[in-house]
Amino acid sequence: MRYLDEQAIENIAIGAAFLGTGGGGDPYIGKMMALTAIKKYGPVQLLSPEEISDDDFFIPAAMMGAPSVLIEKFPKGDEFVRVFEKLGRYLGKEVKGTFPMEAGGVNSMIPIVVAAQLGLPLIDCDGMGRAFPELQMVTFHLDGVSATPMAITDEKGNIGIMETIDNKWTERLARVTTVEMGASSLVSLYPCDGAQIKQSSIKNIVTLSEEIGKVIRETSLDEADKLQKLIDVTHGYHLFEGKIIDVVRETRAGFNFGRVKIAGLNKDTNSEVIVHFQNENLVAEKNGEPIAITPDLICMVDLETLMPITTEALKYGKRIRVMALPADKAWRTEKGIETVGPRYFGYEVDFEPLEELVQKEERRHV
Amino acid sequence: MRYLDEQAIENIAIGAAFLGTGGGGDPYIGKMMALTAIKKYGPVQLLSPEEISDDDFFIPAAMMGAPSVLIEKFPKGDEFVRVFEKLGRYLGKEVKGTFPMEAGGVNSMIPIVVAAQLGLPLIDCDGMGRAFPELQMVTFHLDGVSATPMAITDEKGNIGIMETIDNKWTERLARVTTVEMGASSLVSLYPCDGAQIKQSSIKNIVTLSEEIGKVIRETSLDEADKLQKLIDVTHGYHLFEGKIIDVVRETRAGFNFGRVKIAGLNKDTNSEVIVHFQNENLVAEKNGEPIAITPDLICMVDLETLMPITTEALKYGKRIRVMALPADKAWRTEKGIETVGPRYFGYEVDFEPLEELVQKEERRHV
């Protein structure tokens, strides 16, 4: 058990945005919300999953929809607690804490706002270990946990409760509601007890986010050392460095769809990388060959500062690095690949683990 | 207080379909559902609004969406009671009866199914005195009653509760949910007490439907006498007789949109009527001049049998009569016209009362 202070929040927002693989919201917006909350209500207690009781009851809170919308539709602030408390009251259970659904600049911070405001602990876990665009793309889903009852609200004050026959129907009905609410909404779903968290969550993601953020915000190291440290902390790979030469993007059906084209710089000159995204980065190809595939994490960062770049912030001329991390093993199972693999998203490619793609790519250059 | 038996149900289904002005569902499907229910659970008690207590609590149940979908997606039967009971439980109140939201072949019958199955009385009133396509088009809305909390379900078992900031948001969020559920859903909304029913409902609509149905199903009268009797019972007008020569129709956004063109027969030869609809018939024009305008009721019936024809049953070659009835005075107020007048539906015409349009039309032919 420990408390999250302002420095911790700054680090978590940045690190979670890195793990958000382009989605999960802008870390600047996210940290402003959380900093305001802890300034007003005091620091938030972080508990590891081992510290919670099996029988206690927990609810996550998250933003749903197209992250780009948040830039224009800034949260009012009361909607996170409203959706969280609504679900708790509906279930008629005492809620003992909250946790993030996914990593991301905003979605790592919303539960901190809720925790601060209600004086509840934050649990050091999430349901993805990264960010994904749809509601059933959660490790709890892989273990058969129901996404509903769920609560959904908007900044205007409309609120709903859903109970669906399966988690894909949760996604379908929540998605059309989100689109009608203005392409973004706040949701609380996958209510669960401590035992389920211990079994199905991705553990220590808040702490990992914090460590990643600390490296990225480090100012005493030179560029190469900092990059190496980031690789070490994340167990990741540096795949490419280059300059964005094209971004195609569309907000449709409550998602940001698109792709970004990057022309190589330095040792990558004469190569080109394309990263395809749906809120999150999903497939990266170099000169037409896949080099990282969902569910493995594809993270784009600023070439020099290593600050994560969300998909809505991609723009022509930006110089960036493409990094990648192996997904949690839960995602590399058969059901995991069926749920979040490349074919689910419509890409005509089979999943191959990042480690193998890296070796293949190395062999090409021997 | 009286009981509704099989004959009453046959009459109500037909009469309510007449008042449904083309919407509210097919009376054959509706009556089959209600007859099955009273065969299994016994006849349903009908109470007039004067017979209920001010403090008792009542909930309507209705189908929402494109009525044409019902033909392919027949109700399973448990969804009416599910949505009704869900809302009751959510509100934590004992529900003392039910009533229809609107007149219509199906929407007059769904509350009878609920009443039979749960042993509750049906109240002799509704919220429209006809049918309209959107959820805020209810006399309770005109008096400031909230449509929510509402419950919504589908035949698969998905269910939701909504609380919205106003009744237009109820319509917006319920509509997208309905579309995603397959273009039709079951809803319970406008929960209210006896005092609100006395103040805001359209009274005796079930009895009026029954009387209309009795005339239409009458076999002892000749055609002219039967038509005159229908005009007398409904305080209506016979506007036109002819043959359908064109139907344009589209199911979009959870509605049936379209228009039907009718070439005159007998004394109306050489004239042409076009009726525009959105689930319900909304504007009728004869040779380019409006002859009946929403909220007044435009009812199309079979030329000989006078059986009501719902918009989804309109087809080339059918010989029909166009009749019209003045709307309840609640709809002819400023707020009424704002809510359900022709301009709300996008027609470039101002509302004129049917009685005046009939006089105008008569003067044209003097």
From TrEMBL, chains A, B:
Membrane-crossing residue ranges in chain numbering: none
Domain of life the protein comes from: Bacteria
Gene3D superfamilies per record: CV3147-like, CV3147-like domain
InterPro entries: S-Me-THD-like_C, S-Me-THD_C_sf, S-Me-THD_N, S-Me-THD_N_sf
Annotated S-Me-THD N-terminal domain residues: 8-163
Record Pfam families: S-Me-THD_C, S-Me-THD_N
Domain S-Me-THD-like C-terminal: 166-354
Protein name as annotated: DUF917 domain-containing protein
Native organism taxonomy: Bacteria, Bacillati, Bacillota, Bacilli, Bacillales
